[in-house]
Amino acid sequence: MAPVIKKGIKALVDEANQVVREITVAEAITLYGKEGVQFIDLRDIRELQRDGVIPGAYHCPRGMLEFWVDPDSPYAKKMFQQDLTFVLFCGGGLRSALAGRAVVEMGLPDVLHIRGGFAGWRKGEGVIAEYIEKAHA
């Protein structure tokens, strides 16, 4: 017998958008490159390789976000221990909504996510570059 889903992805994303501020691509483009703003790319490495990247965005695979944000985690990253506005994005804006909610609830104070994600960024003619592999600090 198949499990009965009590709350679907649409409801989860709608609830997440009540917690984390969703911004348009146009708003994201105005924030891009500003001091104190860091774009966070939650997409899988294969998506970066296939579709390209937003230059300067910090790649944090969705499955590692909470571990990298928590300063008490053995996986904590310095990037998330700074006083920055974090602009999260994924491929289409769903994973970033859920991820944004999680890190806001963890206590990260200034978190936004892009409606439409990387696909929206591309459609809105945001800056895109080819993926170049590099190590994280």
From TrEMBL:
What InterPro entries does the annotation carry? Rhodanese-like_dom (IPR001763), Rhodanese-like_dom_sf (IPR036873)
- Which Gene3D superfamilies has this protein been placed in? Rhodanese-like domain
Entry protein name: Rhodanese-like domain-containing protein
Reading the lineage from the top rank, the first entry is Bacteria
Q: Which organism is it from?
A: Neptuniibacter pectenicola
> Which intervals hold domain Rhodanese?
33-130
Pfam families noted in UniProt: Rhodanese
